[in-house]
Design a protein that fits this description.
The structure holds 2 protein chains of 2 kinds. Chain A is α/β, with parallel strands linked by helices. Helix content of chain A is 30%, strand content 31%. In chain A, helix 5 links the parallel strand 9 and strand 10. Chain B is globular and about 70 Å long. Classes of the chains: A alpha/beta, B alpha/beta.
Chain lengths: 277, 505
């Protein structure tokens, strides 16, 4: 059992969860993930690590509420316990001095990209951060991300910030303005990562994405998370989760992520009926 | 793998001493061999196929006390018991069977547990017909061996059902800290053996439940979870500590654990990396590895969705690729989940199937179809990316290959389409790569398997041993336990010699 230290709603539908586990906190590296089960009936769900505190012995993740599992997580409070909390899983992101790094995040990826931006900054890179939100009130962790960024842009559909366009367009104009970029890292929903990769492809900038296929065990045992990269099948949990966005078979990923679409609806209806009659 | 070996003199002596005990002599005299040989083998009672293929309750019901004692009478109590050598963990079979025959169940189960900490599991899932039973002298004489597995199961179940499981008196603690990586059959065995020697054992398990393949792989209808958890409880009662949700290599490395005072390690992390066919369409929705399919159903209880949150695809027409026990488990699971058509598709013929005969027989009874000498060459999806069919080729058997089995050769122009909406790939596993990747200096083979000295199960790193599928790349529960038995003996020796060295200094 792992204890929840904090659970808060950051913005509508996006929650932060901080879980106590000194052993995992000691080992976290940017780009890795944990697996959580909200209760004994739950699914094992992967969450990217957004931050950790070795002194306090805690690990923080941020998630979007979508189906039953994330609904359950969003209802937990400080002091509650979860039966499964395991990690850190996956290969850490490649962190070294590349030069100029562009971090593109959206949704839960705003938090997930934070430790990477921080580590890239610490490694001596110039860090340009570009975030995407649908509206200004959906932006969170602005201060945290600003603190590790040399340049900071937000594209918000309501035009509240720098740019009104969806993030790929913003990327193009930022690249034009900032000149040569050595590496782009994109984390967020599959569509965001796909479009970012499409946008950087013609620019010839290496783009890494943190893939989030459906997983079960997260240690390479089951192969649920297989993705095709450069024509070869990879397991996102042990070969990734970071892959070259220009080589990912996105269509396959979109389809595989929807494998249980109808079941997810059935599950949520069942759970809602049971808990909120 | 039942190669003929000479019995070690030490074991021979031990067995002989028990053979010569007075009660054994009397028992042999009381009922002559000739009469014993006339007794029929007691049949394992099973649930009706049409009933059991719709649920996940156990298929075999177990022998009754009366039947078990009748069956025990069939054992000839040979002077040279080949069965003991046939058993990868060297159970003293004649002694436990004869104790059963005279009704001393308490001593029988103790004898059994001296060499096997998981008898209720082995009695269910071991391939006795290729191990202890195949070399049974009654087999040679009459063609029908003693039902050793069924007796093992009976006696283990009997003790558990009394609710009074004997916990042996442990020797004083040696103070040595042992780390066992992986709570599968190998890890559990090592842990039990070393706890009985007085060492301080901790098992680190990546999943949230102990058991490894016993919990995620082998279905409830073959090995009920409550039996597994009783065996794990027993180990914990022996003082074994169990840390679940702990991925060695990631949560902590072997080096980290050394710093925490662990002196000796056993790597039993299993064959956690499923093999695929590597043919077009394999990543279509509806194509699963057996590991994923079985994990969803067994560990995550998808058969009880939506009470449990984890779903699994409920097929109308299922094909399982492969001819091993995992394939049998998968194809029978698909049937239980409601598939009208559930077929085993195997590239060789029935004779080459590695699955236990009993499992194949059970599958047939339950309405599983078998398509031998057939192999898929591509999977075909619908416009939504969901599997709808597979194209197959017919095969014929050619010359024997390295495994001694005749190699399947495709018949040209024999392509045909099989309509299926679920495929489970059950063609084996490779070793899980995590431990190799995260343990610098550990010698790992071409397939990610940890390399060991097969005499001692020692890896190239001092104090680090390995066994089970992480060295074999996909074998059986009992072979893993056999490796574990050797490793545990060597690990104990290692700890004792280490202590002696320290004293000398």
């Amino acid at each position: 059992m792992a204890k929840i230290l904090k659970r808060e709603r950051l913005v509508p539908n996006i929650h932060l969860i901080e879980i106590e586990d000194p052993q995992i906190a000691k080992k976290c590296k940017p780009g890795q993930f944990v697996i959580v089960m909200a209760d004994n009936f739950g699914e094992r769900i992967p969450l990217t690590i957004a931050d950790w505190d070795t002194e306090k012995g805690s690990v923080t993740s941020v998630f979007l509420v979508v189906g039953t599992s994330t609904h359950k997580l969003s209802l937990l409070e400080a002091g509650d316990e979860v039966p499964v909390f395991v990690g850190p899983l996956g290969r850490p992101s490649e962190i070294e001095k590349f030069g100029k790094i562009l971090c593109a995040g959206g949704c839960f990826g705003i938090a997930a990209i934070y430790p990477i931006a921080r580590a890239m900054k610490e490694a001596g890179n110039t860090v340009i951060t570009v975030l995407d939100v649908k509206a200004n009130f959906l932006l969170y962790w602005e201060d945290k991300l600003r603190s590790v960024s040399d340049e900071f842009y937000v594209s918000s559909r309501d035009g509240y910030y720098d740019c009104k366009e969806f993030i790929p367009k913003t990327l193009e104009s930022v690249v034009k303005k900032e000149g040569k970029i050595d590496r782009v890292i994109s984390i967020g929903c599959t569509y965001l990562m796909y479009t970012c990769s499409e946008a950087t492809k013609p620019l010839g900038v290496k783009t890494l994405v943190s893939l989030n296929p459906i997983m079960v065990d997260g240690t390479g045992m089951c192969g649920a998370c297989r993705v095709t990269v450069d024509g070869r099948t990879k397991f996102a949990c042990v070969d990734g989760p970071d892959f070259d966005g220009h080589l990912v078979d996105w269509e396959e990923l979109f389809i595989r992520r929807k494998s249980y679409f109808e079941d997810e609806i059935e599950s949520l209806c069942y759970w809602e009926k049971k808990n909120f009659p | 793998m039942a190669e003929k070996k000479e019995m070690p003199p030490e074991l021979k002596g031990k067995l002989r001493a028990r053979f010569n005990e007075d009660w054994r002599k009397e028992l042999r005299k009381s009922f002559p061999v000739k009469e014993r040989m006339k007794l029929p083998r007691q049949k394992m009672p099973e649930r009706d196929p049409e009933e059991r293929n719709k649920d996940f309750s156990e298929v075999n019901l177990g022998l009754t006390e009366k039947w078990a004692r009748e069956e025990a009478k069939r054992c000839l109590d040979c002077a040279n018991p080949q069965c003991v050598m046939g058993c990868p963990v060297g159970i003293d079979i004649p002694t436990f069977v004869k104790l059963l025959e005279i009704g001393d169940y308490e001593q029988s189960v103790r004898k059994l547990k001296e060499t096997n900490v998981l008898p209720a599991i082995c009695g269910r899932v071991c391939p006795q017909e290729t191990q202890c039973e195949v070399v049974c002298n009654l087999m040679k004489a009459t063609g029908v061996p003693v039902a050793i597995g069924n007796l093992e199961r009976f006696i283990a179940d009997y003790e558990r059902n009394t609710g009074d499981v004997h916990i042996p008196k442990l020797p004083p603690s040696t103070g040595h800290k042992v780390a066992v990586l992986g709570a599968g059959p190998a890890g559990l065995t090592v842990a039990g053996d070393l706890a009985l020697k007085g060492h301080d054992v901790t098992i680190f398990e990546a999943l949230h439940v102990a058991g490894g393949v016993l919990v995620y792989g082998i279905p409830e209808f073959r090995l009920p979870k409550k039996i597994l958890s009783a065996e794990v409880d027993y180990l914990q009662n022996l003082g074994v500590e169990l840390k679940t949700n702990f991925v060695v290599g990631l949560t902590a490395t072997i080096d980290d654990l050394k710093k925490e005072g662990y002196e000796v390690f056993f790597i039993g992390t299993g064959a956690g990396l499923p093999n695929f066919m590597r043919i077009p369409g394999e990543n279509l929705v509806g194509v699963y590895s057996a590991n994923e399919y079985l994990t969803r159903v067994n560990l995550m209880r998808a058969y009880d969705f939506p009470v449990y949150d984890t779903p699994v695809y409920l097929a109308k027409r299922a094909a399982v690729l492969g001819g091993g026990n995992v394939a049998m488990d998968s194809v029978r699971t698909a049937k239980r989940l409601g598939a009208k058509f559930s077929a085993c598709v195997y590239r060789r013929s029935r004779a080459e199937m590695p699955a236990r005969a009993e499992e194949v027989h059970h599958a047939e009874e339950e309405g599983i179809e078998f398509h031998f000498l057939t192999t898929p060459i591509r999977f075909i999806g619908d416009d939504k990316g969901h599997l709808k069919a597979m194209e197959c080729l017919r095969m014929e058997l050619g010359e024997p290959d390295d495994s001694g089995r005749r190699r399947p050769v495709p018949i040209e122009g024999s392509e045909f389409i099989m309509e299926v909406d679920l495929v489970v790939v059950a063609i084996g596993n490779s070793s899980n790569p995590l431990i190799g990747q995260t343990t610098p200096g550990l010698k790992v083979g071409k397939w990610g398997n940890v390399e060991v000295d097969w005499e001692t199960m020692a890896t190239n790193m001092e104090g680090v041993y390995a066994g089970g599928d992480i060295i074999r790349g996909g074998a059986t529960v009992i072979l893993a336990m056999g490796d574990a038995r050797i490793a545990a003996t060597e690990m104990d020796k290692y700890l004792r010699s280490k202590k002696a060295k320290k004293r000398k200094r």
